[in-house]
Amino acid sequence: MEKKSSHILNASSNLLGFSLVIITSLKISKISQSTYLDEFASVASVCFAISCFFSFLSIRSADKKRGNKFEDIADYLFLIALFCIVLAVVIVTVKII
Predict the structure, then answer these.
(1) Is 61 strand, coil or helix?
(2) Which positions, given as ranges, span the membrane (predicted)?
């Protein structure tokens, strides 16, 4: 099985930046109190950051079994964070419409 850790690290770090931009823009515009958007973006940011950490550990791990375990953790955290970002987009879409 091909290692996906480098792809997870790349995507997680990019989406972490996206999540932080969402949080910052909500705080600047002062609309974070009226929606759950910032909570979903915050959970996504934390999950993306931890996913980056575990994917980096997977890349650097000398033990193949441990590296696979770290990669699985990073993969699941990435999926959870992606789900949170999708919920944030749905909230924005419903709020605009």
Answers:
(1) coil
(2) 7-28, 40-61, 73-94
